[in-house]
Structures are given as structure tokens and as C-alpha cells.
Specification:
Number of strands: 9
Shape: globular
Structural class: alpha/beta
CATH architecture: 3-Layer(aba) Sandwich
CATH topology: UDP-N-acetylmuramoyl-L-alanine:D-glutamate ligase
Largest sheet: 6 strands, mixed
CATH class: Alpha Beta
Number of domains: 1
Radius of gyration: 17 Å
Strand content: 15-25%
Strand order of the largest sheet: 3-2-1-4-5-6
Length: 266
């Protein structure tokens, strides 16, 4: 009768479509219990991020240590980390408590173009955090930023992209295809066993806000259920696809009418 537990370390989204809020919804829908630690408070809506304020390293450390002295964690999802000092805290805590099944979504820039990670923090994330993670889930823009490349997101590029990320310390990589040029949305998992690609039709929707958060937290939740990495990715991909197909099921009243308004997936 044990309920698996997932710890999400991420930013606060008052719009509810990304960050801790969407992680909570995803983890609970998939049958686990979510614990949270907030790295930053954001101001955002359907149009994008307008402001960000990171919590102090002391507060993040207190959040995490207080939780982990009390409860057992079966998996960890990490999202926005904001600053170098917050990454230092997360690395310290992950090592101290030897936390399992760590999935890192290397959030750097919001979909609306707002920087979400200090430039000097990228090097520390790569050097200190990548080796601790069971999986990293970069999108095409994040992969190109990390590698200094200009890949187009073609399926045949996946092994080369992954090898570049392995050279930076990653143990396994899920190369997301949402921004790629393939006709379908193809995500490629690359680890020591080889390459496995998962494909779904593209969904015509204006809502892509928070999809990376949903996918990474869904993978962490499946890992908490003791599923293999490949199965966890496949089931998380199917879960996200199902939710994206229903993006128009919830109708919100906005201040002004606009064809570009986005609606939450849940």
C-alpha cells in the first residue's frame, strides 16, 4: 500500500502551467505523492514571464533539509535553478542524502525568451549536477546552448548530440523533439544501451508552456514506480501527448480576446 514519492525542485508559476504547480498536478495524477522545494518566485501569465526573484540559498537549503530529515524520496525532478548558489545547495543536498532517480530539466530560457538561469551558473550545472542525474531532458535550444552547436533537431543527429552531452558528464539524455524539424514529434533517449526513439503526431495548439515540466516530472514519477528508464520515458511521452490533445477542454475567460491566448493543459 506504499505510495511512491517524488520531490520537485523548481520555480513557482502563478499561472499554474509550469514549474512546481504543473509538477504537483502531474505527479499526483500519475499516482505518487509530491514534495516540493521552491527555487524562485516568478510573475507570469499566458503571454510569458515578466519577473523572477530567486529564493536565498539558506531558504532552499532549509526547505530541502527539513523535508529530507523527515521523509523518504523515491525520485527527484529538478527544473529552474536560477543561480549558481542555488545549484551549489542542490548538489550538496543530493549528495548528502544520496537521492535516487534524479531527472534534470535544464531550464535556461522561458518559451517567451526570459532568461531563467544565470550565465555563469550553466558551467556549474554541467560540471556538478549532470553527473548526479539519471537523466537530463534538454530541448533543442538548450542542447545547442550547452554544446555551442546549431543542430536542426533531425532524428539522425540524436546520437551525435547525445555524445556531446555525454562528454559534459551526462549519464543518459532524452533529446526532445518539440522544436525539431521532423514531421512528427520525436524524442530520442540515448543511454549506455543505445538509442530509443519515441514518436507522436504533432498537436496543433498554441499551448506549449510547461510541456517540458510535465514530461520530466512524469518520467521521475514513473521511475518512482520502479519502472525502467525506457518504459518511464515511453509512458511519460504518451501521457504528455494525451494531455496536449485535450488542451482545448478547459476554457478560461481572459481580459481581452486573442487568438494567441494559451490554455492550461490540466
Amino acid at each position: 500500500m506504499y505510495t511512491p514519492t517524488v520531490l520537485t525542485i523548481a520555480g513557482f508559476d502563478p499561472y499554474g502551467g509550469a514549474g512546481i504547480q504543473i509538477d504537483l498536478k502531474t505527479i499526483h495524477v500519475l499516482g505518487a505523492y509530491a514534495f516540493t522545494a521552491t527555487t524562485a518566485i516568478t510573475a507570469q501569465n499566458s503571454q510569458g514571464v515578466t519577473g523572477l526573484e530567486a529564493v536565498s540559498p539558506e531558504m532552499l537549503h532549509l526547505q530541502l533539509s527539513t523535508l529530507l530529515k523527515d521523509i523518504r524520496v523515491d525520485a527527484v525532478k529538478i527544473g529552474m535553478l536560477a543561480t549558481t548558489s542555488l545549484i551549489e545547495v542542490v548538489v550538496e543536498v543530493l549528495k548528502k542524502y544520496n537521492l535516487p532517480n534524479i531527472v534534470l530539466d535544464p531550464v535556461m530560457i522561458s518559451s517567451s525568451g526570459k532568461p531563467l538561469l544565470e550565465l555563469d551558473a550553466i558551467e556549474m550545472m554541467v560540471k556538478e549536477l549532470f553527473p548526479l542525474c539519471a537523466l537530463i531532458t534538454p530541448n533543442l535550444m538548450e542542447t545547442n546552448t550547452l554544446l555551442g552547436t546549431n543542430y536542426q533537431g533531425k532524428k539522425e543527429e540524436s546520437l551525435e548530440m547525445a555524445e556531446g552531452l555525454f562528454s559534459l558528464g551526462a549519464n543518459a539524455v532524452l533529446l526532445k523533439g518539440g522544436h525539431g524539424c521532423e514531421e512528427e514529434a520525436v524524442d530520442c533517449l540515448v543511454d549506455a544501451s543505445g538509442v530509443a526513439c519515441f514518436s507522436t503526431p504533432r498537436v496543433e495548439t498554441t499551448h506549449t508552456h510547461g510541456t517540458g515540466c510535465i514530461l520530466s516530472s512524469a518520467i521521475a514519477t514513473q521511475l518512482a514506480h520502479h519502472k525502467s528508464l525506457k518504459t518511464s520515458v515511453q509512458e511519460a511521452k504518451n501521457f504528455l501527448y494525451g494531455k496536449m490533445q485535450r488542451t482545448n477542454a478547459l476554457h478560461l475567460q481572459y481580459v481581452t480576446d486573442s487568438a494567441t491566448k494559451k490554455e492550461p493543459i490540466f
